[in-house]
Specification:
Order of helices and strands of chain B: HHEEEEHEHHEHEHHHHEHEEEEEEHEE
Number of strands of chain A: 20
Largest sheet of chain A: 6 strands, antiparallel
Helix content of chain A: 25-40%
CATH architecture of chain B: 3-Layer(aba) Sandwich
Shape of chain A: globular
Distance between the termini of chain A: 47 Å
CATH class of chain B: Alpha Beta
Distance between the termini of chain B: 62 Å
Largest interface: A-B, 123 and 121 residues
Oligomer: heterodimer
Number of helices of chain A: 30
Strand order of the largest sheet of chain B: 7-6-8-1-9-13-5-14
Largest sheet of chain B: 8 strands, mixed
Radius of gyration of chain B: 24 Å
Number of helices of chain B: 12
Strand order of the largest sheet of chain A: 12-11-14-9-17-18
Strand content of chain B: 5-15%
Helix content of chain B: 25-40%
Number of domains of chain B: 1
CATH topology of chain B: Alkaline Phosphatase, subunit A
CATH superfamily of chain B: Alkaline Phosphatase, subunit A
Structural class of chain B: alpha/beta
Structural class of chain A: alpha+beta
Chain lengths: ~850, ~475
């Protein structure tokens, strides 16, 4: 190695090593034994060490380098030695977490002779064989060679212990200025930056995707839905050179679908959900209504942040966190949850480490974390270090005091002050973080990765800054941000092929184009719904807040004085009512949904039956109503073990004078499980010994949700219950929708065996496909070629190749059966081409 | 092409690193050339957890005290055990009446009587269950894995077509279902290691065979079609290779499982009726039978629960005595049979079976001595009605855990509790991280196994501090 680069090159390697080690060890556990991952760190460091050890032997490091070397040594002490030798636990009277302790040594005298590693006791002890009684650390493995050599180097270089306050970790700048665009040929600012980047990295511009690929991608990305066939065909035949941009604008105007789609992203980010841990004890509050409105109204991002931090009643669920009953770890008290969640979601800064002790992943101290948490606290917080009180107390302050002071004696004043400090143009971090998150949504990887670690270096600092500054200039309009991104050529490229997930996360990443992204659970479910039959019929969150008066009812089941889930079996329900003037009726309709089966009688006449509660059944009963009426329902709770069962019923009576009346299922209905006569549907039957029906209220809402089709308004019928608004169920969970107890900004994307099992044999999914297949057969049953063409168009946005067509025809009869078509649909839905955007 | 070259070198390194980061932690010593010291002698290959959900009272089950029969008007504080004691296979060790079957197999396992559950303020079932199953006290700033997920991650399946973590008997549609979901999860380890859930053991087969109504022939044809379409679709143009490959690979594994003859392990109808009847005390008994069949066919971790539903099962807020009769009847025969069957088949030596509950109960004491706990069950001063005779409060200071097989000592007992109220552990208490580490120890999973999550190491037990209880092993 050439000596001229000595002073520089070793240090680069050294910092690389620091990065690796600091990544490997950082939790509470650093106080004691060796984390396994040190060995992982050693793997890479050994290679580096071999190089720089030789080079460094006789070279005097600069003062700055010595300081950083010292930090490195401190990290080794912290991770490997604090367990026994720290202020709180000083074995052999040796304390290694303070300068004085390190140089004074312990019971056996000084351990370090500056400038002479060979004479330093510490070096003797760490170099002893593992079996030796005096080896340090005594348990769980020696220091790695790299660690030992680093200590030696530090001592030989004079054992500098710096008093400067050093930031071990890279910190992204707060300020944000819009860099002038590079002078490139492209029209679009993003493309100009990417052109420059590609030039610098010797990359040729990849191909643009064709119109079919583009329209599918942009639909899924902006509104979360597949484009319909006619939209695709119209787009393809459109000759307008600006058609892509126009399409983007149209999609962004579809605020309803846009909002539903983006709810998923924001729910994950703000750990908001419609059900989940915490709601049972009111320890948690949804912000769904607020969020949906913010999205449909396109509220500027800085206003959203302001309302999250200094909330209205509708948005307070975010900073309130999840309040658990009983005692919780000090680092999870709700004030710290607020501080952690705000830092992570809005600023891409991890405060979780620093909530327990000074961070080992960034420069945040325990004091800073508590000071931030204090902003949300009613009384003064005492600092707890690793769940033990320290006697120190917190003063309200933001993590970056350079942005301003938090003022105010009351909580509401402090929150208002926090908004002023955090939501200001000078806080570039706020804008960079959200812009980067959006970039990652559209490209599969952020400009900075991971998206929660905004101190990492972006692959293009200029592009990130330009985009963030542009977003800020545009009134932090999220739809404009999307527009800016998806109108670029860069977004419209063919997917690039990247080697593996680890490379994508690494700092070595080189951008070569968007990566193919697996559909989210919600996108997949909605796509399946549009190809087959709606997967969901009930909303957990109904943005239009329609209340339902009808109640789910059943017969109360008791065991040892406790209400339990209903046993399987038959129950009989009756409800009588009178109509003073039947002749004045102009219309009468029944809506009924029963979990699991029913036979419906009105005035002894059987009107129908049903076996699927999702399918709300409708009956016109004008002809059967009289003065005295009796509704009688025989209902079955299916299965072999106790499980949910219920009836939901409504009858609407319209009169010729415009009045109307409605009769609902509720606890005034009567129920029994045994009949004394076959005439139970008769008005005259004596139901005196029947019980009052039981309102299955406790679980009705979470179990059946808001059944969309349970409405007399025909125009409202057959609306799709989009997966982004339904309760988390095993299907969506299996496909990666998280339970939102914690902020989770990147879903687990890797396909798993459980997922594959779900897709291969889940009854629910199989039923949806089979029902869909029935429709396909009835629409195209006589022409299998047309069916195949149409299916490929709808699902993949293209026609099948000849080869594909041959294969598909091969598995279908001339008059294809529902089974054959089911299998074809299933195979297409699971093609990587379908599942990846 | 400087960039290309660097990238290639980098990729080489990444491959090594990714092996280390993504593979089992067991591979670390190999990679870094560490010594054999890390390798623990593996004693067990399978784990069966028998979960007594709802708070199983130790003095009414495996640690009986003086029998105080029901008398109308008796003082509540005079009630000690509501059942007489019966002898077991170990001299001097008695169980509560109704557990004779389990008593007769105690010479094959270890009884641990000094477990102490955590202090979590409120005594809340789901929170204590979360703690028992994950070893972490909720809430945590990241989602932590279930013990079954850790084992699935570290050891993978025994039989490649069997999901490594199977959970039998719990429905999540019951009260507090959301709270139960919170720990039936692989958390940060990734959904791949999450539980394969079978709420009703009689319907276990449905989860592992082709969809209802699909013949094997049709199922094979469907797979063939799928594979051909994958092969011939312009796939290369979409997605990076590793993603597509892992999708197609997962689909192939699922197909292999669904078609595998081993799937019949999930079918309780395939069990001879004589044997089925011995287990068949209800859903829990059937779950034990299913667990045995699964372990025989290479399942790694199986959990069988009496199912948690607030105020039902072991969660006796009233009628404690009457309801415990029923609970004992439900668990005694199948657990007896499970151990006997595993032993007869030579599987007990390689299968660690644990019976546990989130905490115990008592007639009077809520929580533990010296602790103020909110919301305790109202207990009248005098027992006027059989309904009030039983252990209706939650007790954490002394609980029983039973373990068999997988290197666990036979016919051994650890710890004891006081004979007078409070029935607290009088010997060194045993904590949850010791239990977890003991299981890991038996499986050969190193104590300090951990992953870096959001920059911090998360260990199998908090801070990696738990130690196995060596006394458990012979």
């Amino acid at each position: 190695m050439c000596s001229k680069i000595k002073s520089k090159s070793p240090f680069t390697q050294l910092s690389a090593w620091i990065l690796v080690v600091s990544l490997a060890c950082s939790g509470c556990r650093h106080h004691s034994e060796t984390p396994v991952n040190h060995r992982y760190a050693a793997l890479e460091t050994d290679v580096l060490l071999a190089g720089w050890k030789q080079t460094l032997e006789d070279t005097e490091l600069s003062a700055d380098e010595k300081d950083r070397l010292n930090l490195h040594v401190r990290a080794i002490f912290a991770h490997r030695c604090f367990g026994c030798h720290s202020t709180s636990k000083h074995k052999g009277a040796l304390v290694l977490d303070a300068k004085s302790g390190v140089f004074e040594g312990g019971d056996n005298g000084p351990i370090i002779v500056p400038g002479d590693a060979g004479a330093s006791e510490i070096m003797r002890r760490v170099r002893l064989p593992e079996s030796h009684d005096d080896v340090m650390p005594p348990e769980d493995g020696k220091l790695t060679d790299a660690e030992i050599e680093t200590l030696a180097l530090w001592i030989n270089q004079g054992a500098t212990w710096t008093d400067r306050q050093l930031k071990i970790f890279r910190e992204a700048p707060l300020a944000l200025a819009k860099p002038p665009l590079p002078d490139q040929d492209d029209d679009h600012p993003i493309d100009q930056w990417v052109s420059k980047y590609f030039d610098e990295n010797d990359i040729d511009w990849p191909q643009l995707i064709d119109d079919r690929g583009f329209i599918r991608r942009v639909h899924l990305d902006v509104v979360g839905l597949l484009p319909s066939d006619d939209v695709v065909e119209a787009f393809i035949s459109n000759r307008d050179p600006n058609k892509r941009t126009k399409l983007i604008d149209t999609l962004l105007m579809d605020r309803q679908n846009y909002a539903v789609h983006w709810m998923t992203f924001w729910n994950d980010l703000l750990r908001n959900d419609y059900s989940g841990t915490g709601f049972i004890t009111n320890g948690r509050k949804q912000i769904s209504g607020w969020l949906f409105e913010a999205l449909t109204e396109n509220m500027p991002y800085d206003a959203m942040v302001s309302q999250l931090l200094n909330p209205t009643e509708a948005s307070e669920g975010f900073i309130q966190g999840i309040q658990w009953r009983g005692e919780v770890n000090a680092s999870q008290r709700i004030e710290l949850q607020a501080a952690q969640n705000i830092s992570q979601t809005l600023l891409g800064l991890n405060l979780k480490c620093a909530s327990c002790h000074n961070s080992f992943v960034n420069n945040v101290t325990l004091q800073q974390a508590y000071d931030f948490a204090q902003v949300f606290a009613d009384s003064t917080l005492e600092l707890y270090r690793c769940d033990k009180p320290t006697g120190k107390s917190a003063k309200p302050s933001f993590i970056f005091p350079e942005l301003g002071l938090i003022e105010g004696d009351s909580l509401s004043d402090r929150l208002a002050s926090l908004v002023d400090v955090l939501v200001q143009p000078d806080n570039g971090r706020l804008y960079r973080t959200v812009v980067n998150r959006y970039w990652a949504k559209f490209f599969g990887r952020g400009l900075v990765a991971p998206v929660d670690e905004m101190d990492n270096r972006p692959w293009s600092e200029a592009l990130l800054d330009w985009l963030a500054a542009d977003f800020r200039e545009n009134g932090s309009d999220l739809t404009l941000l999307i527009r800016q991104i998806v109108t670029s050529k860069t977004y419209q490229l063919e997917p690039a092929s990247y080697p593996n997930p680890l490379y994508l996360k690494s700092s070595q990443f080189v951008f070569e184009g968007p990566m193919a992204r697996k559909m989210t659970a919600e996108q997949f479910a909605d796509a399946v719904s549009s190809i087959c039959t709606p997967m969901y019929h009930s909303l957990a969150f109904d943005p239009h807040g329609r209340d339902m008066t009808a109640k789910w009812i059943w017969m109360r089941q008791e065991e040892f004085d406790r209400t339990v889930l209903p046993y399987p079996g038959v129950r009989y329900f009756r409800h009588g009512f009178s109509i003073p003037q039947p002749a004045a009726l102009s219309a009468a309709h029944i809506l009924i949904a029963v979990d699991h089966e029913y036979d419906l009688y009105v005035n002894q006449q059987q009107l129908g039956s049903g076996v699927d509660w999702h399918e709300v059944d409708r009956y016109d009963v004008l002809e059967v109503l009289e003065k005295q009426n009796i509704i009688a329902i025989k209902a079955v709770n299916d299965g072999e073990i106790p499980n949910h069962a219920g009836i939901l019923f409504a009858l609407k009576l319209d009169y010729t004078d415009g009045r109307s009346d409605t009769i609902f299922s509720d606890d005034s209905w009567l129920v029994t499980d045994s009949l004394t006569s076959e005439k139970w549907t008769h008005y005259s039957y004596d139901d005196g010994d029947w019980e009052d029906a039981w309102k299955a209220g406790n679980y009705a809402k979470s179990h059946w949700g808001r059944l969309l089709n349970f409405t007399f308004d025909e125009a409202d019928n057959d609306r799709l219950a989009r997966a982004g608004l339904v309760k988390l169920d095993p299907f969506l969970k299996g496909l990666g929708r998280p339970s939102r107890e914690n902020v989770l900004t990147q879903r687990d994307d890797a396909p798993t065996l459980l997922q594959a099992l779900l897709l291969s044999n889940d009854q629910f999914f199989a039923r949806v496909i089979a029902e869909g297949a029935e429709e396909w057969v009835s629409d195209y049953g006589t022409d299998r070629e047309l069916l195949i063409d149409q299916l490929y168009q709808t699902a993949l946005g293209r026609l099948p190749t000849e080869k594909e067509k041959m294969q598909l025809i091969d598995v279908m009869s001339t008059q294809p059966s529902v089974e054959e078509v089911s299998d074809v649909i299933w195979s297409v839905l699971l093609l990587p081409e379908f599942l990846f955007i | 092409m400087q960039h290309q070259l660097e990238r290639r070198n980098f990729l080489k390194k990444m491959q090594l690193a990714s092996l280390a980061a993504m593979g089992s932690t067991l591979s670390f010593p190999l990679l870094s050339g560490c010594k054999e010291k890390e390798v623990i002698d593996r004693k067990a290959d399978h784990v069966i957890l028998l979960w007594m959900a709802g708070g199983m009272c130790h003095t009414e089950t495996f640690d009986p005290k003086k029998y105080t029969p029901f008398e109308k008007g008796m003082e509540s504080k005079s009630v000690i055990s509501t059942f007489p004691s019966v002898s077991t296979a170990i001299d001097g060790i008695n169980f509560s009446e109704g557990l004779e079957g389990i008593g007769s197999i105690m010479d094959r396992g270890t009884l641990l009587r000094s477990y102490r559950a955590a202090d979590l303020g409120h005594i809340l079932h789901t929170r204590h269950q979360y703690h028992w199953h994950t070893c972490y006290e909720p809430p945590q700033s990241v989602q932590v894995p279930h013990i079954g997920a850790w084992i699935a991650k570290e050891m993978g399946p025994v039989n490649p077509v069997m999901p490594p973590f199977i959970d039998i008997g719990q429905r999540f549609t019951v009260g507090e279902g959301e709270e139960l979901k919170a720990f039936h999860s692989a958390g940060f380890l990734g959904t791949e290691y999450g539980p394969f859930i079978i709420p009703d053991p009689r319907r276990g087969l449905e989860s592992v065979r082709p969809p209802h109504g699909m013949t094997i022939k049709r199922f094979e044809r469907r797979q063939q079609l799928y594979q051909e379409l994958v092969k011939n679709s312009p796939m290369g143009e979409h997605g990076s290779d590793y993603q597509q490959e892992s999708l197609v690979r997962s689909m192939e594994r699922a197909y292999a499982l669904l078609k595998s003859p081993d799937a019949s392990a999930f079918d309780l109808n395939a069990e001879p009726s004589k044997s089925f009847d011995r287990y068949n005390t209800g859903r829990f008994g059937q779950g034990c039978l299913l667990a045995r069949r699964l372990v025989e066919n290479g399942a790694r971790f199986v959990s069988v629960t009496t199912e948690y539903e607030p105020f039902l099962g072991w969660d006796t807020h009233e009628n404690g005595h009457i309801r415990l009769k029923k609970m004992k009847k439900e668990i005694d025969a199948p657990i007896h049979q499970l151990i006997v069957d595993l032993d007869e088949r030579g599987l007990l030596d390689r299968t660690i079976v644990i019976l546990a509950s989130e905490f115990s109960r008592d007639m009077l004491m809520e929580g533990r001595p010296g602790l103020t706990v909110k919301d305790q069950v109202t207990v009248p001063d005098y027992v006027e009605d059989l309904k009030n005779y039983g252990m209706h409060r939650h007790f954490t200071d002394g609980c029983s855990i039973l373990m068999w097989g997988g290197g666990i000592r036979r016919g051994h007992i650890i710890g004891e509790t006081a004979d007078e109220r409070p029935f607290s552990a009088t010997t060194e208490p045993i904590y949850i991280d010791q239990i977890h580490q003991s299981v890991y120890h038996a499986l050969g999973i190193p104590e300090e196994t951990n992953y870096i999550i959001e920059g911090r190491p998360f260990y199998t037990t908090p801070d990696g501090l738990g130690k196995p209880l060596m006394e458990l092993f012979s």
